[in-house]
Amino acid sequence: MANKPGILTNCPWACLGNLKYLVLAPFACHSIYTFFMSKDESERDMFFILLLPLTLFRMVHYQTWISLSRYRTAKGNNRILDKSIEFDQVDRESNWDDEIILFGLVYYIGYLILEQAHHMPMWRTDGIVITALLHIGPVEFLYYWLHKALHHHFLYSRYHSHHHSSIVTEPISAVVHPFVEILAYYTLFGLPVITTLFTGTASIASIGAYVIYIDFMNLMGHCNFELIPKWMFSVFPPLKYFMYTPSYHSLHHTQFRTNYCLFMPLYDYIYDTVDKSSDTLYEKSLEREAEVPDVVHLTHLTTLESIYHLRLGFASLASKPHASKWYMLLMWPVTIWSIMLTWIYDYTFVVERNLFKNLKLQTWAIPKYRVQYFMQWQRESINNMIEKAIVEADQKGIKVLSLGLLNQEEQLNNNGELYLRRHPQLKVKVVDGSSLAVAVVLNSIPKGTSQVVLRGRLSKVANSIALVLCKGGIQVVTLDEEDYKRLKAKLTPEAATNLVLSKSYNVSKTWLVGDGLSKDEQLKAPKGTLFIPYSQFPPRKVRKDCFYFNTPAMIAPKHVENVDSCENWLPRRVLSAWRIAGILHALEGWNEHECGDMILDTQKVWKASLEHGFCPLTKTFVA
């Protein structure tokens, strides 16, 4: 929002929320009906029916640039600015699609009002030439002076400062403006379209190509990585006056008083407003190589919808805890395509980059869904991908690699021990994060608790929790005889006296739960029970009279930068214990792996997490 929001800052349909797309529905339905149902051939118009596909294509075009930009800036090669993006920017730019809705309305209504827009030819060369000349001349010239006017303190404080709130831009930053400012731009961009319509030279190709050209240049200029090759300017030197680069426009967002042009620096050169460091930044960005992090967290896809919740997916969804949305069903063709891709693509990819003081962090993802980890015939492929990632990290000189979610599954690789046996000379420290997960669960148990129920599939974390509690004099109640026998075998005789096998579900209101906790078992728990997960995945919440804790996690300190997405189902700026464990391992310089049966001193790990600014996530969540 601008410093002093002026009139017509918000779009008229802002009050509709997620239903705002309905404003286009009558026009879209009318175009489809007249084209396919009308018996009168004169009412069937190719341009009218193509407006809906063009509008949808623009959304896909935008999303493609968002994903590409986030991927490239996470890797680091050719990145222009290192400054972080935070949740406030993501929220501010979440209405980027308002511009596309306005586009649909303007063109639908324009078509219905202007007879000249009816039955245009598919192609007219003269119309394309006129459109190009009008853009180079009046549009670029008028935009330059409009842009300078918007930097006057009166208009800047009321309107344009909203756009400049994003110092580090993303592609969608290009269209995030107050409503009245977008109207002004549409008036400018409409000059070539209106002119060709009234001169009878307009065509579907000239209008469509001009819209796509504006989108391409606008999105490219805000992507925060340099991609225009140097040879283009070497082959045709005058091109520097007719095509800007992402680094050129990035300087406008950092310096404010230079590089005002729309897409063509011509008028910046004429009026001497070119930033003197434009060429230097361009060359520096082109030469920049991919970043080598200090710590990598290796995760994977979870539900079929999780592909959209990745940071590389939909920015607004990634900025909120993962939750199923009904409208994601509309994406089923893309979902099926992504599933097919996971069968053939066997390389990890960079999802996110963060900075913890001077420690560079990255998150890599295995392109496999959770369900694939339980398919016997997929396990070898998954293990190979994890192994490749560890070897790659070792070759790059990365200090620590932490295994997230099912990448450390005991039945898959024995909590990562498999890779240490295969590569005993690894310099990168492989961490499964179990010690911190144990510490978080232990410190989530209310003080004064004398008895807990341990329910769910036993794991390395569960076994360690039971051992610490029993040694500390707290009774651990199991409801399954096999679990009781397995736990007892791992305890000393003295500690085993605090392990209890019970048939009653009412023995305690503190339940430590893992994978496999059933709905029936939750329903048998007493009212007011605290369900504290020790597993990677949260239990399904079925009780409204009980409290559900998050999976082991902690709140990140403020100096963890570039946090603009949520880690799966966790709240904002909350990181899983397994992810934090890798960071702590690097910060503390611990020179040992944490894999297989290895558990670090939980008190030492917990103390280190607090000393480095991580805070306990004490809040509980009702189903």
TrEMBL record:
Q: Which domain of life is it from?
A: Eukaryota
What membrane topology is given? Multi-pass membrane protein
Q: Where in the cell is it found?
A: Membrane
Concerning InterPro entries, the annotation shows: CER1-like_C, Fatty_acid_hydroxylase, Sterol_Desaturase_Related
Domain Very-long-chain aldehyde decarbonylase CER1-like C-terminal: start-end pairs: 452-616
Regions that span the bilayer:
19-36, 48-68, 100-115, 127-146, 183-212, 326-345
Entry similarity comment:
Belongs to the sterol desaturase family.
Return the protein name.
Answer: Very-long-chain aldehyde decarbonylase CER1-like
Organism from which the protein derives: Solanum pennellii
